[in-house]
Amino acid sequence: MSRIISVALFLCVSVGMTAQAQQDPPKVVKISDSIYMAPLGANVYLVTTQAGNVVIDTGTSAVAPDARKLLQAESHSPVKYIILTHGHADHIGGISLWKEAGTQIIAQNSYVELLNYVTRLEGFFAPRNAAAFNRPQAEVGTWAGNYGAKIEPTILFDQKYEFTLGGVQFQLFSTPGETPDHLTVWIPKYKTAFIGDNYNGFGEPEPMSFPNIYALRGTKPRWALDWIHSIDTVLALKPEVLLSGHGEPIVGNAEITRRLTRFRNAIQYVHDEVVKGMNSGKDVFTLMQEIKLPPSSDMTESFGKVSWSVRGIYDGYAGWFDMNPSTMYESPPSSVYPDLVRLAGGPDPLVRLALEKLDAGNPVESLHLTDVVLAYDPGNNAALNARLKTLEHLREHSENYLEVGYLEYGIQATK
Ligand SMILES: [Zn+2]
């Protein structure tokens, strides 16, 4: 449970708590004489050179001023480059604070579509993000159009981009994974890799968590094979220091290799099991039930759940049609739920069955039954109470932070 709490706190910070709200005021972590980290939920990094500074990621807009204050206490030199490991809000919120006349802002090409996608669907994402992170729903303005995002980078690249500042070479590689625009920054002089959120500290201390190959708040497919390839790219650099978007630095090539290899192998295993299952004609729900991490993988599911990723991979490859002719049409299964309730002689036997399912250790079927009754009568008190009991049971037994968020959302909605 403490692991969940630490992840929860961690995400709260990344989605908007101020630094002052934390118990201990955050301090800069000195990685080396030239690299500093401000750990404010999402890490903000400062790399100093004799010709000016490079900022890597900028935090949320809420924590960015504190991150900047901490890092500027280490060096006031002009900011020549801001590098964005990816376009998620917890990494790009402080761009305007760091940007000076002449500062170049670098991102990978797919950054543009990622930001347009998030802006295009702002009204869709607002309630989902609010539920996931247990926060009030963000205000949604008028629709900005399909290409309405504010795009701040001044340099975009496809596969690789290099520059040298003050004698320090920076190499940037396209490494799609958690997002299609993910990039890795590699500084050969310091044998240091900045991996963004393609590997993060969720679930730390060890064992760490499986990632979200699909995120419940809604994402395009996160291509597992790309992600694996990207981790391989980082491993091939043989870093001695690995700095991620969240969590602690990892030092020493042996430890970095051990963790990254375990991580990429877990993704590979789940991906390949889904592909095998698809090729043998298994449906997505069977695979969600069957595919488990091998015991040797030694990971939790406190952040990403394997079953969600199984479905994400399956649907990413195949889309929504499951070969059942009845799913080709506009009318969902729930369109006949009221008829089933009438056939059962009213809600009572179904509510009883829901509670029996819950007692028998089958809370998900219990939830389905309350769906059936509530389609017939949305205000049915007995069904709402059974649903509440079931959701609270699921919340009590969940070890996954995001699952708890959506269960909590369901509990509030039921109340
Ligand atoms: Zn992040």
Which key terms come to mind for this protein?
alpha/beta; 6-stranded mixed beta sheet; binds zinc ion; disordered N terminus; about 15% strand; single chain; about 425 residues; 15 helices
Structural write-up:
The chain has a 7-stranded mixed sheet. It has a 6-stranded mixed sheet with strand order 8-9-10-11-12-13, with helices on one face. Residues 1-22 have low confidence and may be disordered. A hairpin with a 4-residue loop joins strand 10 (183-187) and strand 11. The protein has 415 residues and is an alpha/beta fold. The longest helix is centred in the middle third of the chain and has 27 residues, at 253-279. The chain is elongated and about 80 Å long. The protein contains 15 helices and 13 strands. The chain has helices at residues 2-14, 64-72, 89-92, 95-98, 111-120, 122-132, 224-236, 253-279, 284-290, 306-318, 337-343, 347-359, 363-376, 381-397, 401-414, and strands spanning 29-30, 35-40, 42-49, 52-56, 79-83, 104-108, 155-157, 160-165, 168-174, 183-187, 192-196, 241-244, 250-251. The chain binds zinc ion.
Placed side by side, the strands forming the largest sheet appear as 1-2-3-4-5-6-7
Radius of gyration: 23 Å
Order of helices and strands: HEEEEHEHHEHHEEEEEHEEHHHHHHHH
Strand content: 15-25%
Q: By helix and strand content, what is the structural category?
A: alpha/beta
Number of helices: 15
N→C terminal distance: 25 Å
**Mean pLDDT metric:** 91
How would you sum up the global shape? elongated
Ligand kinds: zinc ion
Helix amount, in percent? 40-55%
Taking the sheet with the most strands, its summary is:
7 strands, mixed
User: Which blocks of ≥5 consecutive residues have pLDDT under 50?
Assistant: 1-22
Give the number of DSSP strands.
Answer: 13
